[in-house]
Amino acid sequence: MRRRTLLIRVAALTALVAMLWVGYATYVDFNRVEEAQHVPRVDWLPQGATDVSYHRAYSWTAYEFDIDEAGFLRWAKDEGWAVKRVDKQFTVLRHSFEAARRMYPKDDDDMPAKEYQAAYEAAQTAFEKVITRGYGYERRQSNGGGVTVGYDLDTGRAYYQSSPR
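The chain above was modelled as a monomer; its predicted structure follows.
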């Protein structure tokens, strides 16, 4: 009887340790962040992608890179995104979104209006890319997550942002 009780306790302790380990590993995976600026190339983007900047995490991912128009359209097709031509404003949140949130001046900052405006515009540029001539695609989920992809014909730069929620 004692031996059986000991085996049950060892099995329960082993199961508890395993559950804690899986929980910890999941927490680490969900909170891991990879960031880089102006990397020449990464293996998870199309062959022609260069000058890559990114922020990759479970909860929010965004990247941008240079690529020719044909390369972008091929990549979008391979990913299943039905990009459409954009000739007005199409907005994609940028890889620098997190840093940009801290860049915005506060209303109580004691600075002249001109400086305040310049600081606001710099933060806005880091926060989002507004495409006025290029391609765009957006798919939103009911929980607010989804994917936004854009390509700026004037700069030859692609933009991607996704979130599961």
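The radius of gyration is 22 Å.
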